[in-house]
Amino acid sequence: MAAALVWIPFLAGLLAGLGRAEPQQTTLRPAVGRLFVHTLDPEHVAVPPAVPATYHAHLQGHPDLPRWLRYTQRSPRHPGFLYGSPTPGDRGRQVIEVVAYNRDSFDTTQQSLVLLIGDPEGPLLPYQAEFLVRSHDVEEVLPSTPASRFLIALGGLWEPAELQLLNITSALDRGGRVPLPIEGRKEGVYIKVGSASPFSTCLKMVASPDSQARCAQGQPPLLSCYDTLAPHFRVDWCNVSLVDKSVPEPADEVPTPGDGILERDPFFCPPTEATARDFLADALVTLLVPLLVALLLTLLLAYVMCCRREGRLKRDLATSDIQMVHHCTIRGNTEELRQMAASREVPRPLSTLPMFNVRTGERLPPRVDSAQVPLILDQR
């Protein structure tokens, strides 16, 4: 009975976990060529508010997000963002799986985002301009309020025009450097805006060759109108690019296949036929000449080593008699001294023995541990 009572809470918790295993599902409709932003906050993923949480998002069946979609989050105390701009090749249905991690209790919550990517509604936006805003980070302009404020401020430079956000990219993703941890330093963000109205004279002057030349010299570009983006947005006017897609680009010429025969070229005259050639003589010269040289060197070495040796008799005959007598005398005296030293019976001095007792004169074998004696004694 007691064992059954222990298992009841465990089974209840297991059934509750199985009931929560089904992830939440949200359907979103991004448009091709338009900015898509989805905020990941605790309210959307069933995490208690004011609780630090981090997120991991990936395409269903893949370890990472699709190429057009990015994820950013400044810290666990801040919300996360999924943002990007779909391309025409991304049309269709994509499922993004999001896992939220509760940093206090380490619980996880799953959510599925079903993205139905289709064509945008409304007129085409052939006039596109991209600005580098150095006063903000990417997560600071992704919410709707700062983005709308930027479009309203840009309307003073580009009027009359109905502006729409096309894409937002962090400057770090475009090769920018991480700023120093100093107050006021930001990573920077590229904001791409599109419109159906042509560019204003002010924007055309900023992107003119004269302005680019001034920027190359370190001077500010030409700006004929009031900067309505300042002071909330500090734009780098030397990094403004304008793209006009109203004029269709000429189609690439398709090469026409020929008959495979080259036209007659007076500078290229290939031979019509090649004469027959016998390579036997070349092969024999290549093989036999090194062999003959090696054989001659071998015979020369054998003659020097074997046929030109000087024997002992020839050496003695070539030596003078006085030198031979002197040499024999030295050898004889040396042998006589060795025999005299070996036949003497005088005892050796005690001081020359390895060890002796001064009082008794007793000779003792040396009691020295050979393992402690160094192989090479110090020479003093």
Automatic annotation (TrEMBL):
InterPro entries: Cadg (IPR006644), Cadherin-like_sf (IPR015919), Sarcoglycan_alpha/epsilon (IPR008908), Sarcoglycan_C (IPR048347), Sarcoglycan_N (IPR048346)
Family annotation (Pfam families): Sarcoglycan_2, Sarcoglycan_2_C
Highest rank taxon of the organism: Eukaryota
Dystroglycan-type cadherin-like domain location: 27-124
Subcellular location: Cell membrane, Sarcolemma; Cytoplasm, Cytoskeleton
Keyword Mitochondrion among record annotations: no
Primary role: Component of the sarcoglycan complex, a subcomplex of the dystrophin-glycoprotein complex which forms a link between the F-actin cytoskeleton and the extracellular matrix.
UniProt-recorded name of the protein: Dystroglycan-type cadherin-like domain-containing protein
Annotated organism of origin: Pipistrellus nathusii
